[in-house]
Amino acid sequence: YLVGVGRADCTGPVAQVPLMGYANPDQVGGGLLSRLYSRAFIVAEPEGSKRVVFVSADIGMVSQRVRLEVLKQLRSKYGELYRQDNVILSGTHTHSGPGGYFQYTLFWITSKGLVQPALNSIVNGIVKSIDIAHENMKKGRLFINRGTVENSQINRSPFSYLANPESERKRYPSNTDKEMLLLKMVDEDGHELGLISWFAVHPVSMNNSNHLVNSDNVGYASYLFEQEKNKGMLPGEGSFVAAFASSNLGDVSPNTRGPFCANTGESCDNPQSTCPVGGAAMCMAEGPGKDMFESTRIIGQNIYLKAKELYEKASQEVTGPLSSAHQWVNMSDVSVELDATHTVKTCKPALGHSFAAGTIDGVGAFNFTQGSVEGDPFWDQIRDQILGEPSNETKACHKPKPILFNTGEMTWPHPWHPDIVDVQIAAIGSLAILAVPGEFTTMSGRRLREAVKSEFDSHGTPGMNVVIAGLCNVYTHYITTYEEYQLQRYEAASTIYGPHTLSAYIQLYRGLAKAIALNATQELSPGPEPPLFNVTSLTLLPSLSVESAPANKTFGDVLEEVRQEYREGEVAEVTFVGANPRNSAENATEHNFLTVERYSNISSSWRVVLNDASWDTRFYWSKGSRGRSNVTVEWHIAVGTEPGVYRLRYFGHYKKRVALFRVITVPFEGSSSAFQIT
User: Fold this and answer.
1) How far apart are CA 289 and CA 299, in angstroms?
2) Which of 38, 246, 247, 253 is catalytic?
3) Taking CA atoms, which of 307, 493, 497, 598 is between 20 and 30 Å from 530?
4) Residue 63 lies in a domain
5) Residue 398 belongs to a domain
6) CA diameter of the chain
7) How far is CA 195 from CA 56, 92, 312, 437, 449, in A?
């Protein structure tokens, strides 16, 4: 094959924008722990015109808006080379990235609308990573390997899982998928290019009290792998690209200690995930570490170490033709043939009461509980008053789900949920990547993979490696099995197209697999095109206004100085007169907020040893009154840091009024005093 890899920044605004994932409106960005990247991989047939693009981006999920805008840019740059059928865009599902990049109204509620800078940085970052991969295509080889990752996940809805038939559960050793599938890429001389790992775990080691933008456990795994392979480079630099992509993680949590009542410390591993005192709002799962930062590193390191082992031992070469199949489908109206006599249908989208309960990884508001199969008269009344009562048809279709948000019948100012959804498979030789538009649970994923594999088998393409890539192309929440749906825990309440959603997807993906196996992808009907709503900027974000520094101070001045001396394991910190970091995101695509620099006696100059993409640095922004704000830079000094003289620097932009109607953005910087590490 010809192979190309690329990586580009897609972080966007790190302040004031709500973070996407927990749907908690109080969880807004207030700084940066690690940068977010888009990682792109292109595989092409050396002679033919066929190629496949796989992108994994450090974002909550790929929205339809992001996908349509990326495809539009690719079309204007490359013509018909990169299209909706051969480009897969997947989100890692970090819950600590900026939101606001959606066109459907439901997602505006917790994201303060459509945030253009967040949308732009994601779209531009994805396109740039594809550009870099496109420019660096070279002859290469691919190898596949698989193995088991231990101690890194639990099923967060085990009672739902137990609703699946016993005969089916008996075939699997665990209630989560522990297998990692890894694709290794080298050039023809054996030089390493990169890897993609697929593993099912929620990147929610960082909980909903976090305000620092970061890529969570799987992002930390990427960081460790890339730092190891790009020796001597700063984080985010270097040619080796390691993507840790999402899979069927719907019911899979990294918080391996399981759920406990925050107030009493007793277990709340019960069907309702509720506590005797304080109810469901008190039931939270804990990770393996002493705090969320340590848990993120522990889980990330586990995933990284398994990937490293699989990468080093990968010997099964991937060969064979490339192929891709794609359809747009109206998921609110799919007829599914269960057997010769039974046909069922999917529903208009709707969310159940337990959607509002959240999960043990991030509980909801107002003490909704998981597993509600009855509505609540109080909330139903409020829903009817504000949003309108669901039609009888929708109510009946979703049974036993009591509907809280009847999104499929809500169209103001735009539809609240998508109807038109992408289904897509890309085949690279013996590897079939199923790009799914949401979060399949463990058992849903197993059923889908098995159905697709048997479809390939029965049409003359046996022995395919089938992997699910999660959170692709458009976000449609969760996909549970029919049996799990009956229990209406969070994942089931969030299965928006009703109880037969999984059966519909299985039918659709079988059709794609059959078309690939029979080399008949051009005969697939493209289906109804998704809409692109005319929303440019509709946001409740505070506008960026003129800023000021305290009396006798200027931007970048030190307010609280570092100590003169630190040891490894300690935290060096300095506070500056700061400015809103959004200014920087809107003025520079790849702005670096901070550096750690070491003084070199040999060259008598300062050398950058860490930047803001490092997991050892933290950048905090806090807003004061009257246009003032502070920035604190922390460096958590790692064990093994070279002794010497260091300093911390901060780079920002402030807004300054130069005329009655003219405000300009001015760059500035600040530096701590020098300090010693002993």
Assistant:
1) 9
2) 253
3) 493
4) yes
5) no
6) 82
7) 11, 15, 11, 22, 22
Residue 419: its pLDDT value, please? 98
Pairing state of beta strands 241-245 and 192-198? parallel
Find, among 521, 471, 482, the residue nearest to 344 by Cα.
482
Range of the domain at 569: 557-677
Q: Which of 314, 200, 206 has the alpha carbon at shortest distance from 255?
A: 206
Question: Do 93 and 246 form a contact (C-beta atoms < 8 A)?
Answer: yes
Whether residue 579 sits in one domain with residue 466: no
Is residue 215 a part of any domain in this protein? Answer: yes
Within this chain, do residues 122 and 258 fall inside the same structural domain, yes or no? yes
Report the 10 Å Cβ neighbour count for 228.
Answer: 12
Binding residues for Zn(2+): 93, 202, 439, 478
Asked whether the whole model's pTM tops 0.85, one would answer yes
Q: Determine the distance from the C-alpha atom of residue 379 to the mean position of all C-alpha atoms in its chain, rounded to a whole number.
A: 31
Helix ranges restricted to H, 459-544 = 482-487, 490-493, 501-517
CA quadruple 58, 59, 60, 66: dihedral positive or negative? negative
Start-to-end CA span in the chain (Å) = 51
**Phi then psi for 105, rounded to 5 degrees?**
-60, -35
What are phi and psi for residue 507, nearest 5 degrees? Answer: -60, -45
Contacts with 606 (C-beta within 8 Å, 6 or more apart), sequence order: 597, 598, 599, 600, 647
Report yes or no: 530 and 418 within 8 Å, Cβ to Cβ. yes
Question: Is 282 found in the same domain as 215?
Answer: yes
Number of domains the chain contains:
2
Across-strand partners of 266?
Answer: none
Burial state string for 436-463 with b = 16 or more CB within 10 A and e = fewer than 16: bbbbbbbbbbbbbbebbbebbeebebee
Q: Provide the annotated binding site.
A: 93, 202, 439, 478
Instruction: Record the tokens describing residue 110, joined without a space.
Output: 């917790």
Task: Write down how long the chain is.
Answer: 678
pLDDT for 481? 98
Tell me the residue type at 410.
M
Residue 633 sits in a domain of what CATH number?
Answer: 2.60.40.2300
Task: Quote the distance between the C-alpha of residue 591 and its chain's center.
Answer: 21
Which residues, given as ranges, of the chain have pLDDT below 70? 536-537, 587-589
Per-residue pLDDT at 48: 79
For the chain, counts of helices (H) and of strands (E): 14, 40
Q: Is 157 a catalytic residue?
A: no
Same domain, 135 and 66: yes
What's the per-residue H, E or C state across 20-63? ECCCCCCCEEEEECCCCEEEEEEEECCCCCCEEEEEEECCCCCC
User: What was the pLDDT predicted at 367?
Assistant: 78
